[in-house]
Design brief:
The protein is about 80% helix and about 0% strand. It is an all-alpha fold.
Length: about 100
């Protein structure tokens, strides 16, 4: 399941980076809530698929031999979600919703 999580995390991070970079360069529309919601399932699924294995690995204690392979998608997914939320908030800050 960790391999599937790696694929989801990398694809989700790539899509988020492409959308954020494209919106800052003016190539695509701005990063709004709909775009943020469209990107979020991939990193969330990556975190979901690795959370149980990561918890078991941490509870076993040292040595943490497989921590990078199991924990990598979780960290990538978490940082992607934080970046997407912050980018969407920054774009929505100046917009009038009335």
């Amino acid at each position: 399941m960790a391999l599937v999580a790696w694929i989801l995390a990398v694809v989700g991070a790539g899509l988020a980076f492409a959308l954020c970079a494209g919106s800052s360069a003016g190539l695509v529309r701005r990063m709004d809530r709909a775009s943020a919601i469209a990107i979020m399932p991939l990193p969330l699924m990556a975190m979901y698929f690795t959370a149980n294995d990561l918890l078991v690995l941490v509870q076993e204690g040292p040595p943490y031999e497989g921590l990078v392979f199991v924990g990598g998608p979780f960290v990538i997914g978490f940082m992607t979600l934080i970046g997407v939320v912050l980018a969407a908030q920054r774009q929505d800050k100046g917009r009038d919703w009335t």
